[in-house]
Design a protein that fits this description.
418 residues; alpha/beta; Molybdenum Cofactor Biosythetic Enzyme, Chain A; six-stranded mixed sheet; 40% helix
Length: 418
């Protein structure tokens, strides 16, 4: 089955909102063998919506829309599609009562303007929305199939999962499009490609895409037009081969977060963590505390942006700062050691660098970053030269520090002075 996606909202065209709904729908449909052949966006104009739906139906015979089902004047998707199908809008008392009860549970009276959400095109199937106020609609006639979903991402996801996908499964051909992602860090895309070599030929009929970002390079393997069993088998073989060739640069798959991987490793070794940050200004601590349950492992940190703070809170000797500068191996190692002592933890992670756009020199250009870990009394430091804007350098620096710490925790225990 082929289908088209149409996201509705002027905010999408103006660039104020990113279309995450379309990406999620495309992935979900590919999993069940429904192929998305075209995606488009249109503003909140009734005629524009009608034209876009009409054209999609002429090409494919099926379209999913998101957005424009709310109670305000710019929510006109339902009316546009109803007119296109010559289906009169009819008021459904049971939908209105559900809305009244929902507002009552929130201690409010349902606004009269929400009555519009209880209007349904004649002949449409109502897709019950238990997560919001706008029900989805399934309208099918000689024109083709139009599935209308709300634009609120959480409501859209729930309706897609519970109402739309089950209805489309029976129409799919049993051939699926499935992907898996292997996440790598600490290796450039070009070098990674050299290591993987002829992997696409080895894992045929899978395709391989390189997806570089500030956290590293994600590798997406995709199985096309396969049965579910064939896809899963081929993807498992492809992922295993990537692990073999990319080695210790692989830190996880799919939605794995390196901060979460580090916290899991620390939890397994019963190690608590502290951080000492300069150029990242707390970003490393944020990465760690973004992970639920991080309080079991993460203790806290120091943002030592000024040298005086490095000296007073992390016990960095002034002579190190004077002789080597704040962005140096010696200082970052002292920061890590100081944080470990200050917080009384086995593992401390430190970052210092030049994020730019100014402050660089020939010896230490913008993007020069030192990261260090102090683990069980032994300290290791690593210099990385990071590209990008100030924000990108800071994000990449935090990732480099997480990677160094994870690799040390994953290695056998050892004790030696710095």
């Amino acid at each position: 089955m082929n289908i088209e996606l149409l996201t509705v909202g002027t905010e999408l065209l103006l660039g104020f909102t990113i279309d995450t709904n379309g990406a999620l729908i495309a992935r979900a449909l590919g999993e069940i063998g429904v192929r998305v052949v075209r995606r488009g966006s249109v503003g909140d104009q009734e005629q524009d919506i009608a034209d876009a739906v009409r054209e999609a139906l002429a090409r494919t015979g099926a379209v999913i829309t998101t957005g424009g089902l709310g109670p305000t004047r710019d929510d006109v998707t339902k009316r546009a599609v109803a007119d296109l199908f010559d289906a009169q809008l009819e008021f459904h008392e049971e939908i209105w009562q559900t809305l009244v009860e929902r507002f009552a549970r929130m201690g409010r009276v349902a606004p009269e303007m929400n009555r519009a959400q209880a209007e349904v095109p004649r002949g449409a199937t109502v897709l019950r929305n238990r997560w919001g106020t706008a029900p989805g609609l399934w309208l099918e006639a000689a024109h083709g199939l139009v599935v209308m979903l709300p634009g609120v991402p959480r409501e859209m996801r729930k309706l897609l999962e519970h109402e739309v996908v089950p209805r489309l499964v029976s129409r799919a051909a049993g051939r699926v499009v499935r992907s898996r992602i292997v996440r790598t860090s600490g290796i450039p895309e070009s070098l990674l490609a050299e290591r993987l070599g002829d992997i696409e030929r080895r894992v045929a009929p899978l395709s391989l895409a390189y997806l570089p970002g500030y956290e590293g390079v994600d590798l997406r393997l995709t199985a096309w037009d396969s049965t579910p069993a064939e896809a899963d088998s081929a993807l498992a073989a492809g992922v295993a081969l990537i692990h073999e060739r990319a080695g210790h640069h692989v830190y996880g798959e799919d939605d794995t977060n390196l901060a979460g991987v580090l916290l899991d490793a620390a939890r397994q070794r019963r190690v608590r963590i502290a951080v000492a940050e300069s150029c990242t200004g707390g970003l490393l601590g944020k990465r760690l505390t973004d992970v639920p349950g991080s309080s079991e492992v993460f203790v806290g940190g120091v943002i030592a942006y000024d040298n005086a703070v490095k000296e007073s809170l992390l016990d960095v000797p002034p002579e190190l700062l004077q002789q080597h500068g704040a962005v140096s191996e010696e200082v970052v190692a002292a920061m890590a050691d100081g944080a470990a002592r200050r917080f009384g933890v086995p593992l401390a992670i430190a970052i210092t660098g030049i994020a730019g756009p100014g402050g660089g020199t020939d010896a230490k250009p913008v993007g020069t970053v030192w990261v260090a870990t102090a683990l069980d009394g032994a300290t290791e430091a690593m210099r990385v030269q990071l590209p990008g804007s100030r924000e990108e350098i800071r994000m990449r620096a935090a990732q480099a520090a997480l990677l160094l710490a994870w690799r040390r925790l994953a290695a056998p225990r050892r004790r030696s002075p710095h």
